[in-house]
Amino acid sequence: MRIIITVLISCILLGCSVVFKQAPLLPRENLKVAVLPFTARGPALSGSVGHIAADELTTLLFTDKQIPIVDRSQVNYCLEMDGINNAYFLSRQQLAQIADSLTASVVVLGLIENRPRASELTHNRSVVAITLRFLNAENGEVLTIVHQEKAGKVPQAMVQPLLTELVREL
Fold it and tell me: In CATH, which superfamily holds the domain spanning 2-169?
């Protein structure tokens, strides 16, 4: 038990990250991904960080994984036309309607959380966690979930490196 606690504290102090995921279950045929704006929760995360993170993920999926994607301007326009302000609260029907409008087979919902830790062990660091849910656009079924978190001092500066690691693991 003492060893486990020591390892966990070392990871927090060194800013280690952790990846939890299922085996990727993205369809191979007719794949087209729409990345919706992320939901951001916690202090020091501006409202625009969700759009910035979605833009970054879209770029990484296309450039690093060569996954066909829907341009973010089309996604934003579709959400605006449908009056959707927060992608975190979508019904199955709304998800299917958005995906149909964008001709997407997979929709990605992202969550960024900042959990400040004020203690002697973490030296007033934040733990930023990003969770990506890849959903079947037709029925809303979760195809895969990837999650990663990292400790650091500037929460918004940790978003891009975390996304890079998540895409690398897909």
Answer: ABC-type transport auxiliary lipoprotein component (3.40.50.10610)
Q: How many other CB atoms are found less than 10 A from the CB of residue 78?
A: 20
Residue written as token pair 């079947």: 136
127-163 burial: b if 16+ Cβ within 10 Å, else e: bbbbbbebbbbeebeebbebbbbbbbeebbebbeebb
pLDDT tens, position by position, 116-155: 776 555 566 778 899 999 999 888 889 989 999 888 777 7
Q: Which residue has the tokens 């997407």?
A: 104
Closest CA to 155 of 21, 28, 45: 45
Q: Token digits for 39?
A: 């939901």
Contact 27, 106 (CB under 8 A): yes
pTM for the model stands at 0.78
